[in-house]
Amino acid sequence: MSTQGRSYNDAIDALNSLQTPYAIIEARRKAGIRPDAASISEMRVYLRRIGYSPSDLDRLNVLHVAGTKGKGSTCAFAASILSHYQKVQGIPRKIGLFTSPHLIAVRERIRINGHPISEEVFARYFFEVWDLLGRAEEVEIARASEEKGKGERETSGVPMATRPIYSRYLTLMSYHVFLKEGVDAAVYETGIGGEYDATNIVERPVATGISTLGIDHVFALGDTLEKIAWHKAGIMKAGSAAFTIEQVPEAAAELKKRAKEKGVDLIVLDIDCRLKGVNVRPDAVFQKKNASLGVALAEAVLSKMDPIFKPSLEKLPKEFVDGIEQVVWRGRCEVKVEGPVVWHIDGAHTVDSLKMASKWFAGECASRKGPRALIFNQQGRSEAIDFLEGMITALKSQGQGSFEHVVFCTNVTYAATGYKRDFVNYQYDPKAIEALTAQRQFAEKWSALDPAAKVTVMPTIEEAINHVRGLSRSGALNGQETVQALITGSLHLVGGALGILEGADAL
């Protein structure tokens, strides 16, 4: 099972071949084909083909997190708390973190003890899974042929592909990596939804957490909060602790209903009173809710793994405080000073999260002088045009004006060379990207909402950043002023921007 001669770049190229092309996505959308229970049954078959059963995943002591907003931050808090506890107490031995999407490099999605696995390790395990799936299918085809039956190659009457699609492949690979590397506590963020998400083949998580719910991924999950909550609640399991935070009434009622059906005691958390005096960043209610959920999840797994750990009702242990205060979650509420430009970077993909990002930006630069610039994109999401008005309204609600300069760009990274390999995405209409269709629609909408703004459309992230940098050299600044820039929207945009600003290969 040698991976000799096959590099990280080879692995990424092979992985990109598992993306579902835009034309097929559109055909499925028009036909109304959505993820269903077959997704889970297929994942179980793939897991068996690489040599595991769902019960093997129990060794990972999984903390499983779903939600619309804040699920990534919740995972980051839980993993950071466990990491600081590990440094002092030696438990857990190894901590895994599986999240999506990546910001710069695919390998960021699979982390051990806080660090993305190396290119060498990624390539080795990627091709181990690749080869195992290829050989397993050959064996099953031969067996099915001998038996003159269909065998397990078909699930629900639909032939299975040799390998799962992009995101599911990475999920499958993460199980293999964590089990081979001896991970004994793993934090898993769902991709989309929960009930039919590839991560949901974990049958006995130690605990599950559901962060704030809102309207997103309408085609896959439904167009009401009740439908979305139904999907997210799918990660709750009987016998496992289950936590959520305050939700809007429709979502709360559905979570409560599904918990009862599953025989789960769902605990609804208030903001943890023990966070008083703890430096949660940003200092906002939504982040304190995420931290509270992260604390509850970490306490659940440590109560199982460490015989001497006993949660205190009065005060958080120092390891917990350090884990919260020193958490690193890139691309969320980051501020980077680059000479005369102050970059504010926050990935946000729903109307509510974009309003929060705008308010955060307004608070950060309220005491600073200088022109304001926005770089934004949400590719392939027609509803994103309606997000723009919410951003302007959010800024005005803070008693501040809007942006003097607005740039809409694609997620293409570089002007000369195009996408970084890890950013190649076949799921969007290439013709629309080349024609800047969405970007021109955004520009037209923003100009109608705010005629005073200088609106620009750029074909790449690099050119958008250079355009904003140019504002500091164009006589737009006076005296002690700096350009206040917000990069928000797609995490692919945010990741590409961070890669350019830092010259980094992974975060």
From TrEMBL:
One Gene Ontology CC term in the entry: mitochondrial inner membrane
Any one GO molecular function term: ATP binding
Domain of life: Eukaryota
Subcellular location: Cytoplasm; Mitochondrion inner membrane; Mitochondrion matrix
Stated role: Catalyzes conversion of folates to polyglutamate derivatives allowing concentration of folate compounds in the cell and the intracellular retention of these cofactors, which are important substrates for most of the folate-dependent enzymes that are involved in one-carbon transfer reactions involved in purine, pyrimidine and amino acid synthesis.
Presence of the UniProt keyword Isomerase in the record: no
Protein name, as recorded: Folylpolyglutamate synthase
Binding site for Mg(2+): S100, E189, H217
Family indicated by similarity: Belongs to the folylpolyglutamate synthase family.
Main location: cytoplasm
Signal peptide: none
Organism: Pseudomassariella vexata
InterPro entries on file: Folylpolyglutamate_synth, Folylpolyglutamate_synth_CS, Folylpolyglutamate_synth_euk, Mur-like_cat_sf, Mur_ligase_C_dom_sf
Cofactor annotation: a monovalent cation
Keywords carried by this UniProt record: ATP-binding, Cytoplasm, Ligase, Magnesium, Membrane, Metal-binding, Mitochondrion, Mitochondrion inner membrane, Nucleotide-binding, One-carbon metabolism
